[in-house]
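Re: the request from the purification team.
They wanted to know what the chain is likely to look like in 3D before they choose a buffer screen. I agreed to run a prediction and write the result into the notebook, where they can find it.
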Amino acid sequence: MSGPRLCGIGDEAGRNLDAQLTVLGRLGWRLLELRTVGGAALSDLDDEEFARLAAKMAEAGVEVPCVASRIGGWTRAIDAGFAADRDELLRLLPRCVLLRTPYLRIMSWKQGGAGEQEWGDETVRRLSWLAERAADAGVTLVHENCTGWAATDPGRIERLLTEVRGLRLLFDIGNGIPYGYDALQLLRPFLPAVAHVHVKDAVRTESGCAYVPPGQGEADVAGCLRALHEHGYAGAYSLEPHVSLRPHLREGATDEELAEGFVASGRALSAMLAQTAVPA
């Protein structure tokens, strides 16, 4: 029986691709989730830069199970227009095809100045259009329980899954701490729809939260891993530790701090998977 599919979000391990691949090699992993490379989002690389990246990934024998896009993310509001999200999708789809990447991470927009009904209806409309274009390219959109209209509300998540054809879920275990909900409680009813998983852990503090290696915090990482395993989840567990880098805060960790924090968190994740009945 094969073990869990261990993956990492590259820019939390190193800023450039060489550093990301080096850290992945230290852990013995062969899956890399791409978000930014050299500080640039994957969709912002020019064609020549992307071609070099794809060639280097192929040479290293590293696969990309998911690309983390900015579509519907924390910098974009539902009343700010659709062009940026539409253009990013159309630029990313052929790159996902070339990388043989099955999943593209999206969110569901901040409210901005929109009313509640407009926010929900426009989110469903946009995601339906995006999901249809993605499906035509053989790519599946996966919605993360983070920023946006359907971030944490079970009823809204259910509406997306019902009305947006082909949509699946990306479940981030650690998001319950900063966003104030019980991750395992949110996860349980949606286990059949989970296609990709992010793993992080955190503790609550007076100012919000502090991130720690998996298993050292309050996110019930072990409980979520066990629930996923018992349900038969066969996707990747993608490490996003945040211990040395929180992209939206642009913190200035050194290259060594990024690498060492990621490796320590990766080893903690491997140990947790072994202890939660998942063969490591």
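For the purification team: The chain is about 40% helix and 20% strand.
Please add any questions underneath this entry.
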